[in-house]
Amino acid sequence: MNILLIYPEKENHSKGFEAFFQKLFNKSTEDPLELIEISIQLPITWERKLIDLNQEKLNTKDLEWANYVIVKAGLRQRTSTVKLIEKCKVAGKKIIAEGELFDSQPADFDNVDHLILNQATFDPFVRDMEANTTQRIYSAEFRKEKLRQTAYSLLGFSDHFSRNIHPFSA
User: What is the pTM of this model?
Assistant: First the structure.
């Protein structure tokens, strides 16, 4: 399974010289860490590519390679996301969408094949995909917070926390 993870371009509301210099020197102000987090939730046997549209353009070779496109978008990425979804649909690709944009306006995205809403993990979707019984909407059956809490609990956080405060204590 080939998965293309795409982070849409953020809309820049700056004007004048500020917008010019931001575009010239600072292509992207943040990394698409959420897409990396999504990638970790996918089966290890699935191939992945990540494209940040704030840094690079989407080319047709990447779209041809992908079986599915995962789009992670916030509210400030609506314009880019709508264009991206149209481009993917023209290419005949199935789209999985996640993020604040889709949480707040799921009815606006009828052309998306699968919506992962309210910070749900990808576990139920992956399980259904392997059983060939996917649904259109997945909601917070499993939340990312539980996934993070489980992962961080492996550290024994209270032990690490107390060691950092009292580095010389026994």
Answer: 0.74
